[in-house]
Amino acid sequence: MTPFISTLLLKLCRFNLHTFPLIALFIASTIITGCLPSAHTATSDPLPEKVKQQTDTTETITLDGVLYEIPAPWAGHKLEAPTLTYDSFRKIPDAHTKEGSKIYVLAKAHDSLIKMLLQAEKDGVHLQAESGYRSENYQRKIFRRMLAKGRTFDDIVRYVAPPGYSQHMFGTAVDFYPSNWRFAKTPQYEWLEENAHLFHFEQTYPEFNKLQMPWEAWHWNYIGK
């Protein structure tokens, strides 16, 4: 017992029985209040701030009114679509596209692409472009079509870049047929691995790439001279 409390109790003895309970109650409340943590200590939990930071950095996309969260590895790699006009593009000859499809790439990539396709032909390898320029809106159509078929968003992004994350909207990327895992086992892929760099094309997402993106053996991008 502290000297202060001892002195205070001695003084209490001088009061009558009616006054003592009131004073005792005051002392008890004072002691209890002193033992309680301060208001600052009780509200210093940093968790709400941490949750807020996570929410602020979450990347999302809205399709037909439904909000989807962009998962890894795409999150953090959103691309800014350039401003392009119709005159910016050149058509790939039908003889070098899948089933004669109308496929376009930027003019700056077109000449090198044609030279590469012709050289492959001379070497006995027939390359067919299956996809070229795709706008962000067109990428949205792809997702809507797949979602309408019952596939989930998370399943789709395992194989297709979300709208706003696809290199195709730059007009410099080409997908060769067949644009799936089978392409890695074709003579076309083997030829591209050995020769594409001579025409300033590179495989954007090779196997075991640093970005940990899905391996896209069929996806090649013009990187410029």
Give short descriptive properties of this protein:
single chain, 225 residues, alpha+beta, Muramoyl-pentapeptide Carboxypeptidase, domain 2, 2 domains, four-stranded antiparallel beta sheet, two-stranded antiparallel ribbon
What does this structure look like?
There is one protein chain. The chain has 225 residues and is an alpha+beta fold. The protein folds into two domains: 3-42, no CATH class; 58-222, 2-Layer Sandwich (Muramoyl-pentapeptide Carboxypeptidase, domain 2), CATH 3.30.1380. The chain is built from eight helices and eight strands, in the order H-H-H-H-E-E-E-E-H-E-H-H-E-H-E-E. It has helices at residues 3-12, 20-35, 39-42, 47-57, 107-122, 136-148, 153-156, 187-195; strands spanning 60-63, 66-69, 89-91, 104-106, 129-131, 173-176, 201-203, 219-222. It has a four-stranded antiparallel β-sheet, covered by helices on one side. A two-stranded antiparallel sheet has the order 1-2. A two-stranded antiparallel sheet has the order 3-4. It starts with a helix and ends with a strand. The model is unreliable at 8-55 (pLDDT under 50).
Fraction in helix = 25-40%
Total helices: the number is 8
Regarding CATH, which class of the largest domain?
Alpha Beta
What strand line-up does the widest sheet have? 5-6-8-7
Based on secondary structure, the structural category is: alpha+beta
Largest sheet: 4 strands, antiparallel
Question: Could you state the order of secondary-structure elements as H and E?
Answer: HHHHEEEEHEHHEHEE
Assembly level: single chain
Average predicted confidence as pLDDT? 83
